[in-house]
From TrEMBL:
Its EC number is 3.1.1.57. This is 2-pyrone-4,6-dicarboxylate lactonase. The keyword tRNA-binding does not apply. Keywords: Aromatic hydrocarbons catabolism, Hydrolase. It comes from Rhizorhabdus dicambivorans. Pfam families: Amidohydro_2. The lineage of its organism: Bacteria, Pseudomonadati, Pseudomonadota, Alphaproteobacteria, Sphingomonadales.
Length: 296
């Protein structure tokens, strides 16, 4: 347990192993976060965890160590709707990061424009009760309509047990959708289990629902080499190769009891995406299409 004298937790390992797998040049870590630094960017009073600082310098050092080129920084719940830490990290990346914001539904169009100028390309709707106090679907849907003019997408985080409740909202969202961590299926059920079947039905309901094959550490308690995660997720990558994204999830919010080794997370990539073509789509083509569309 890595808690400092102020009760601030560390959920990432300070010495990740060097991965054996080397990503192709230009690879994107499409799901990561920054925490603080708190002195500059305080956490939300509503934050459900109080992490130690995990700022852009550490994030970009990890990016280089793991062999990645770009990051997509997703606003973490501990920063609420104050996106300054995420924007600061993007600003210091030299064009090598873009982001996903969490916004107050009352946000103005001018503020949305400023987020766009700062590199934001999507908004995140979080439905996990342990992370947020409320998730107003009607207001979220209004936000989804308002960001359409910017060419953004909606990132949604929910767990498998509420997938059915989510269907109506997901069907109504007018922009592309990205599902965080595949909606957290129980990977122990295997690729044909109820959770994966329900998730595939969702993917089949629209051709613009993307998903992140992230967080083996959260979804597969057996740990590396994440055998259940690999056997459940590989068929998904093979079936939907053009709308799948990968990310480290660093600094792994709330994982302080079992610090994931980022090097071993990278080593799982060729297991879930076994060919060069799949790896290129997963790590370069797909995230670039979504976050750096002007390069196409
Ligand atoms: O499962 C989690 O605890 C978690 C939390 C956050 C966040 O606090 O934003 O983001 C994630 O992607 C995952």
């Amino acid at each position: 347990m890595s808690t400092d004298e102020h009760g601030r937790i560390r959920s990432w390992t300070l010495e990740p192993s060097l991965p054996r797998y080397r990503p192709p040049a230009g690879a994107v870590d499409a799901h990561c976060h920054v925490f603080g630094p708190m002195a500059e960017f305080p956490f939300s009073p509503k934050a459900k965890y109080l992490p130690q600082d995990a700022g852009p310098e550490a994030l970009f050092a990890l990016r280089d160590r793991l062999g990645f080129t770009r990051n997509v920084i997703v606003q973490a719940s501990c920063h609420g709707t104050d996106n300054r830490a995420t924007l600061d990290a993007i600003a210091t990346s030299g064009g090598m990061a873009r982001g996903v914001a969490v916004v107050d539904p009352a946000i103005s169009d001018t503020e949305l424009d400023a987020l766009h100028a700062g590199g934001i390309r999507g908004v995140r709707f979080n439905f996990l009760k342990r992370l947020v106090d409320d998730a107003p679907k009607d207001l979220f849907l209004e936000v989804a309509h308002r960001i359409q003019r910017l060419g953004w997408h909606v990132v949604v985080y929910f767990e498998a047990d509420i997938l059915d409740e989510m269907r109506a909202l997901l069907a109504a969202i007018p922009t592309p959708i990205v599902i965080d961590h595949m909606g957290r299926p129980d990977v122990a059920q295997g690729p044909d289990g109820a959770d994966m079947r329900a998730f595939r039905a969702l993917l089949d309901s629209r051709d613009d629902i993307w998903f992140k094959v992230t967080c083996p550490d959260r979804l597969d308690p057996a740990g590396p080499p994440y055998a259940d995660f690999v056997r459940s997720v590989r068929p998904l990558v093979q079936a939907y190769p053009d709308r799948v994204l990968w990310g480290t999830d660093w600094p792994h919010p709330n994982m302080e009891k079992l610090l994931p080794d980022d090097g071993l997370l990278v080593d799982a990539i060729p297991e879930i995406a076994p060919t060069d073509t799949l790896q290129r789509k997963l790590l370069i083509d797909n995230p670039m299409r979504l976050y750096w569309p002007e390069t196409f």
